[in-house]
Amino acid sequence: MAEAVRPTLESLGEIAVLARIFPRLPESDAALLGPGDDAALLAAPDGRFVVTTDMLVHGPDFRWEFSEPEDLGWKAAATNLSDVAAMGATPTALVVALAAPAATPADVLEQFADGLRLACAELAPGCGVVGGDLSTSDVFTVAVTAFGDLEDRAPVRRDGARIGDVLAVAGELGVASRGLRMLFEHGRDEALRRDAHAVGRQLRPVPPIALGVAAAEAGATAMMDLSDGLVLDARRLAQASHVDLELDALSDDELRGGEDHSLLATFPSGAPMPEGFRPIGSVVAGNGRVLVAGAPFEELGGWDPYEQWDGKLS
Amino acid sequence: MAEAVRPTLESLGEIAVLARIFPRLPESDAALLGPGDDAALLAAPDGRFVVTTDMLVHGPDFRWEFSEPEDLGWKAAATNLSDVAAMGATPTALVVALAAPAATPADVLEQFADGLRLACAELAPGCGVVGGDLSTSDVFTVAVTAFGDLEDRAPVRRDGARIGDVLAVAGELGVASRGLRMLFEHGRDEALRRDAHAVGRQLRPVPPIALGVAAAEAGATAMMDLSDGLVLDARRLAQASHVDLELDALSDDELRGGEDHSLLATFPSGAPMPEGFRPIGSVVAGNGRVLVAGAPFEELGGWDPYEQWDGKLS
User: Fold this and answer.
1) What is the mean pLDDT of residues A208-224?
2) Contact B47/A47, CB-based, under 8 Å?
3) Residue B294: pLDDT band by 50, 70, 90 thresholds?
4) Is B305 inside any structural domain?
5) pTM for the full model?
């Protein structure tokens, strides 16, 4: 019976749905002109802006049996904020394109908007939603594009690691993937009972956004967001920088687990590292390999392009 | 048999697919750092940037029985470029998030990339793709986010129309919707034989991008992209500006047809209008109505929120 009183996207129509969503969206301090026109206008104080985009698709990227709509909004914001932070930038704004089945209850989108707002408030205060697009699709799909401000600093790229640098990480390793395993094994309720921390991190990642800027200011030579697992992502950094990365002995979960959205960075040896980063290895001569406890880690490492195909262009 | 030799996204894997797509993407003159890192870095010379996003979903927004992949790439670029132009800005770059079934032949994405490149070259030279995301979904879905540069000008909003202004349009009216009707009635091949122009405009819209800047420089008081039909969109401009808009006598197709992506603008009476704009009415005292040949046009006008639900936040 409760279902009967939940108005849907198609029963309400566009204008009423937007009227419900708008007040829940976070506002951006960078917005010179927000939603409501053909396009938004954003401030880019140093004459440049960082931009990244990421799509979450029901099925491969999230499932309603595990995620509440608020979780999804949080995750859609957090994963993009993390890519901005990994350049050494402060997130300023998001645009959100969303396609949902016409029979979706409108409160699902309200809670999704709540998740966007909570994530921005917690992870990147001042960052907000400046525009978007709502469409219909049989598959619930969210595409977030995020912007950031480098405040006159150079971007911290993947290709700057130098031999002798310290390899460091900020944030957890292998926790989000443990949470996903729990969800698949036990379902949401039981998984939360057994390991609320790991499941929480899978559903609502907490990337260390402010440490991106801190790392840049501390002179990080390279940095990236850890989304596909430490070994796989570290190999990308090693290849871009034309070096090898030697990792300390770590557990299999720490080496392979994806979706933590921690920050991997390299710092000049001897330079003070921002609080929140811990050393996990070092940069050595080589050409794109990852060594674990001295031996090359040849496997792909936690990521299967056929099962978890998710090609990022940026 | 030909199908057997078309490698798919899942048979090739991410890296090989991206290697095929990358060389086909248009480059952006504004890119300070392009694809390949956590995020791109773009120039915003006047310290601001225009941003808009739009999603195209297989089914409601396009169909493979009508559109070739190259058509889709073109349309995904063109519709977003048009929203940038409608602010009076020059398009600088796009990011593209795309989700496709894993069994999609990789050449579909190559041709999609060709469409993006051709549209940028034709409509907005210097604009290119600086980043993106590839995902899997049962429903082919594209989300494009576009950026533009106002070159120190004020944005041309929807809310600036003043009583006495001339209402003008650049581009065609009612042609794209005639093309869509032909496609539904006759299928692609026969529709193209009967009305190649209208079908072509439906599949590959040709918004007058450069006229957005021209209108801004000529002192346009308000402007918007015509995506949902003249009457419906004109009503939005009238409501935002707290005026009525009096349209000349026009055909039903011209009044209701959507997806032309022409520009609707208001200019001060007596001011010279950029070549390419033609007057179609005037701004009169009122509060958000559209009058056609003197009588209020009360119907919704060419757009049904239940059948064509497509709520835009910006």
Assistant:
1) 98
2) yes
3) confident
4) no
5) 0.94
Burial letters B2-21, b for 16+ CB under 10 A, else e: eeeeeebbbebbbeebbeeb
Q: State how far residue A50 is from chain B, nearest Cα, in angstroms.
A: 4
Any domain includes A138: yes
Chain B CB contacts of A14 under 8 Å are 305, 309-311
B261 in a domain, yes or no? yes
Whichever domain contains A88, its CATH number is 3.30.1330.10
Q: Do B53 and A96 touch (CB under 8 A)?
A: yes
Q: What was the pLDDT predicted at A302?
A: 52
Give per-residue pLDDT as tens, B230-264.
999 999 999 999 999 999 999 999 999 999 999 99
Q: Region of B51 please: left (phi>0), alpha (psi -120 to 50) or beta.
A: beta
The rounded mean pLDDT for chain A is 93
Q: Which candidate from A10, A131, A136 shows the least CB-CB separation from B52?
A: A131
> Residue B303: pLDDT above 90?
no
How far is B300 from B311, CA to CA, in rounded Å?
15
A121 and A221 fall within a common domain = no
Do B135 and B243 lie in one domain? The reply is no
Q: Are strands B290-292 and B244-247 parallel, antiparallel or unpaired?
A: parallel
| Tokens standing for residue B308 | 């064509």
Are A40 and A121 in the same domain?
Answer: yes
Of A239, A296, A246, A236, nearest to A269 by C-alpha is A246
Q: Does A21 reside within a domain?
A: yes
Burial class of residue B102 in the structure, from the number of CB atoms within 10 Å of its CB (0-12 exposed, 13-18 middle, 19+ buried): middle
Q: Are the beta carbons of B309 and A13 separated by less than 8 Å? A: yes
- How does residue A81 score in pLDDT terms, banded at 50, 70 and 90? very high
What domain range is B286 assigned to?
166-171+207-296
Instruction: Give per-residue pLDDT as tens, A230-258.
Output: 999 999 999 999 999 999 999 999 999 99
What are the tens digits of pLDDT across the range A167-196?
Answer: 999 999 999 999 999 999 999 999 999 999
The predicted pLDDT at position B304 comes to 44
Residues of B in contact with A150 (CB under 8 A): 41
CB-based burial label for B78 (10 Å; 0-12, 13-18, 19+): buried
Residues A141 and A211 in one domain: no
Q: Which residues of chain B make contact with A141, given a CB cutoff of 8 A?
A: 55, 57, 99, 137, 139, 141, 143
Query: Any idea which residue has 């032949």 for tokens?
Result: B105
Q: Is the pLDDT of residue A310 over 70?
A: no
The CATH number of the domain where B213 resides is what? 3.90.650.10
State the total domains in chain A.
2
